[in-house]
Automatic annotation (TrEMBL):
This is Uncharacterized protein. It comes from the Bacteria. It comes from Neobacillus kokaensis. Keywords: Membrane, Transmembrane, Transmembrane helix. The chain crosses the membrane at residues 12-30, 36-53, 65-82, 130-151, 180-199, 206-223, 261-278, 343-360, 367-387, 393-410.
Amino acid sequence: MKSTELKINHGKITLGKVFFYFVIIDVLFLPYFKYFVMPNSLIFVVIWTVINIKKIKTDFDFKVFIILFYFVLLSSFVSYFFTPHTLNGYSNIWGDNIKRPFQLLSSFLYYFYLKTYLKSNSFSLKKILLLFILFADILALISILNIGLYFDIKEMFSVRDPFIDNFFITTDDYFFRYSYLWVDPNSIGYIIGVVGFYLMINEKLSSIQILFVIISMLLILITCMSSGALLAVSIVFVLLVGIYLKRLCINFSIKIKKKEIFSLLISICILLIVGLNIETMSNLKVFNYGLDRIFGNSSESRKTIYQYIITNKNMLKSLFIGNGYTLIVDNAIKRPHSDHLRIIYGYGWIAYLSIILFLFRKRKGIAFHHHFFLIPGFVAFSINSLIDEQKVFVVFLILLAATVFKKKVIRETHTRGS
């Protein structure tokens, strides 16, 4: 059977190109599959992987993935015999221990699909990512101006949202956290940081586009009210500013791109404008509520959770395999609020080291600052979750694959030119 990876010649529409657009549009804009919580395109990506396994099996990342694959499956299988199937009225423990590993492992297939596609096809994600940010902005503004309409849109897309209720729609004093078309409000906060910084660092943007991305980040961070996402975005901004200032101080002969200076100046100006007009903005309840939640949120609750789990559940027992996705401590189900703990206890240390190596290692030949867009993902992985919302994880993996391949092409081009 021939591969669906067909080259694009003179703008002709091919099966490979149609499939590629379907995958990207599905992940960014469409709701999950109606009957199972998974992307609509997942079954096609799984089929593509089976057909093209020979193309990817020699990839170092695929070898790391196989290690992760085996230990996740082994831990999930063993959990059937050593983990209670019901606990304190919750009867879906075994269901979660099957569903969540499938969700985690199948997400990685998108990485290999995009990486392989880009070897045969020329494509830039810039335009479609900018459209994604615009769409997220529009929904955020609708959620501020007409919460009922926003809920209607989510219901139209068959999105399960715990806040879709007449009480929340009719209560003026209540302001929910914006979550895009997903469930967890933190997810859109982290992913707007990942997408925004990917565009600013790894794509060529005009000054207007940079301004648009920065303003969009601020809008969505305030409406989703995620203190973790705000922390992640702030870290990256500080690092980028530090790099630009270092370049200026070390060698004035280095040409600093106009867009970089513009980005720095615009960021400073926006922060000043927000600071000077904070009283005016506070008259908008959603901004007031959002800012209060972001800056009033304490890290003590997270520390307490982490300390309790680590103290009462021995990590060394998960040296090789874990106890499955569902974390049980002292005969109670616990949410770890950290993928580090979730994977160590759920699938073991070998699986944990494999996923860290896959996602967050510095890629050879890629400048360190080109990895900065991964930082919001790492913060989510550390204090919330990057892997629980499958589309968020898939977007992260797609942008990682795009960066790896794009820099590889640039490096090979320079090598041939010399």
